[in-house]
Design brief:
Number of domains: 2
Distance between the termini: 71 Å
CATH class of the largest domain: Alpha Beta
Largest sheet: 8 strands, mixed
Strand content: 5-15%
CATH superfamily of the largest domain: Alkaline Phosphatase, subunit A
Bound molecules: (2R)-2,3-dihydroxypropyl phosphate, manganese (II) ion
Shape: globular
């Protein structure tokens, strides 16, 4: 009997992909659903019996599987159609790609390889395992004349019905990872593609709902009438340092007795330190963090905000400060066109940016740009001069040297790490973070030595995760051993926040906050009113509870509230203080709905701004 090899080969690839993505979840039901989606593709290709189409489809689907698995290894989620627009970004992260790559991913192409080798060895017998023509009709050895046209059409229609029904009856279409797991890989992608255009024109909340009172009601917060620290740093300069890939667990963390972040640890002793502070970036990573902290708005559900939305005059921290006579500058050693920052910075109201053109690639690290040492060293004289002229300033500095895959030149290694992790991603992460920490320490010394320290509010925070969940057991086990517990999703979200305010006693504050809270927190410290703009964050000093939304890296509706982190679609939450799971389906469903409304409101506001506040 000859086999319909085309659907079987595709099915094998899809099952292999499932095994990498969701080990242990392939039930008979999902197996049949995956098979149905494969049959649709096979059926469509049978409309025109062109072998080349099948080979092309096979190649494209293999590449789809391969690219998704690579993307998943780094970002912990699958590619979406918007991400295709970011392919140019890939050339910038080549070294990260090499780090993520594993030869087992090439199995997606193994059938093509075997076919090619067979063909080279046996030129006379052409094996086309995708053809449906009969063996006798040509000089070829062919398989797969299994179904006739009518049978094919019926099977395809049936498969289409099964897949469509599985989508229609699937309740949580907002959670694409869960949908992929429950409904199938190709079916979810097909659904994504069908809704791709429609999503862009989704109904947004009516603009009359766009009030601070609506936001506060959703978040269940009351503005405090006598806010603590109001105006405590009035008129001071603001320096905001956004640290690349630095997670909170690194604070006071030691490896073989060696502190990874000695300078941050010392800064904790002089600052208000928030150990329960979370990164809320979307697809735009570093640039999203810059956007969120400067606007108190949420990033987009899909796509980097700096790429998707252009020429908008955002109500922002630089604009708020301009009214008080501040100048706002931002420093980052990469080319400003990366993440469209050349457009983003004017949108955010910065007066000036300093990028690669300014840093001239002095002491470069990787292909990104100058080292963090140079980032700080060249920014410092500019700040010093403003200080000398008594010009109030807001300076934002975005570090880069601890970017994945953390390949810092050996000459910059400053600590000894155990042999066990030398040369591993984990070891390299610690070395890179330690280097960035060192450069931050130098910068603080310079601020102190030149009299800027007593006139400066220093805000230091991490942009996003540095370590992600991984299937690599060595990496996982070693990290657990060093940390004394497993490194989990919460650790990936949890970044440090330190605010050093001249004259205020250091303390650790356990209030829960996210990047969206930085603008209102700084506004309170400077004693500024936010009456003229909407903020989705809150002043972290004056509210102990919060409602923080997470999107893109987590299913829409994922949140932190009260003491719990909850991933949308699951029945569980995790206590953010002790990382223990907690089951309460009803409660979490209610919270999911609250946070989804909040995120939808932020989207509406962005849309409103895009239509009503263009950049002149
Ligand atoms: C490059 C930097 C990259 O300018 O933003 O960081 P990422 O966005 O990949 O975290
Ligand atoms: Mn980053």
């Amino acid at each position: 009997m000859q086999l319909p090899l085309f659907p079987l080969i595709l099915l094998l690839k899809i099952i292999y992909m499932r095994a990498l993505l969701f080990p242990e979840t392939t039930t008979v039901r999902i197996f049949l659903l995956e098979f149905a989606s494969v049959l649709i593709i096979w059926g469509l290709l049978n409309l025109k019996e062109r072998t080349i189409w099948r080979h092309t489809a096979n190649f494209l689907i293999s590449t789809f599987c391969f690219a998704n698995i690579m993307y998943y290894s780094f970002f912990g989620r699958l590619l979406n159609w918007e991400a295709l627009g970011q392919l140019t970004y890939l050339s910038e992260v080549k070294s990260s790609i090499a780090e993520i790559f594993s030869p087992i991913y090439l199995l997606f192409y193994v059938d093509m390889l075997i076919l090619l080798v067979w063909q080279l060895l046996n030129r006379k017998i052409y094996v086309d395992y995708f053809s449906t023509k009969s063996l006798k009709s040509a000089k070829y050895l062919k398989f797969d004349p299994f179904f006739k046209k009518k049978a094919v059409t019926t099977v395809t229609a049936l498969a289409l019905t099964v897949c469509s029904l599985s989508v229609v009856f699937y309740p949580d279409k907002g959670n694409k990872m869960a949908m992929t797991r429950e409904v199938g890989i190709l079916t979810t992608q097909g659904y994504e593609l069908l809704t791709f255009w429609q999503k862009k024109h989704d109904k947004l909340a009516p603009t009359d709902k766009l009030t601070q009172a609506t936001i506060n009601r959703l978040k269940q917060i009351e503005p405090s009438s006598w806010p603590k620290y109001f105006g405590a740093a009035s008129g001071k300069n603001i320096i905001l340092i956004q640290l690349e890939s630095i997670e909170n667990f690194l604070i006071n963390f030691t490896v073989d007795g060696e502190q990874i972040t000695p300078n941050l640890n010392s800064l904790v002793q002089e600052s208000l330190y928030f150990p329960y502070f979370y990164s809320q970036i979307g697809q735009g990573n570093t640039s999203d963090a810059e956007f969120i902290t400067n606007t108190s708005l949420y990033p987009l559900a899909d796509g980097a905000i700096a790429k998707e939305l252009k020429n908008i005059k955002y109500p922002s921290l630089p604009r708020l400060l301009k009214e008080q006579g501040y100048v706002s500058l931002t420093f980052h050693a990469n080319d400003v066109t990366f993440w469209n920052r050349d457009n983003l910075y004017p949108c955010l109201g910065f007066d000036k940016y300093y990028d690669k053109a300014f840093y001239q690639d002095e002491d470069p690290i990787g292909r990104w740009g100058s080292s963090d040492q140079v980032l700080f060293a060249k920014a410092f004289p500019i700040l010093k001069e403003l200080h000398a002229k008594r010009q109030k300033f807001y300076a934002s500095l975005i570090t880069l040297s601890s970017h994945h895959p953390y390949n810092l030149p050996e000459s910059k290694h400053r600590i000894e790490i155990p042999d066990e992790i030398k040369g591993t991603l984990l070891g390299n992460y610690f070395l890179a973070v330690n280097y960035t920490d060192y450069t931050l320490g130098q910068f603080i010394q310079a601020l102190k030595a030149h009299g800027l320290w007593d006139n400066t509010v220093l805000v230091v925070f991490g942009d996003h995760f540095g370590l992600r969940n991984t299937t690599d057991t060595f990496y996982k086990n070693t990290l657990s051993k060093l940390l004394g517990r497993d490194h989990d999703q919460l650790d990936s979200l949890n970044v440090p926040l330190l605010i050093r305010i001249p004259g205020l006693k250091a303390q650790t504050i356990n209030n829960v906050g996210g990047q969206v809270d930085l603008l209102p927190t700084i506004a309170n410290l400077l004693g500024l009113s936010l009456d003229k703009q909407l903020v989705f964050g809150q002043d972290i000093f004056n509210h102990s509870d919060n409602l923080l939304g997470f999107r893109f890296y987590y299913p829409e509706g994922t949140l932190i509230t009260a003491n719990h982190f909850h991933e949308a679609g699951s029945r569980y939450g995790f206590n953010i203080f002790n990382h223990k799971p907690y089951e309460d389906k009803e409660f979490f469903l209610q919270q999911e709905n609250r946070v989804k409304s909040l995120l939808a409101l932020s989207d509406s506001y962005l849309n409103y701004l895009a239509e009503n506040q263009p950049l002149p």
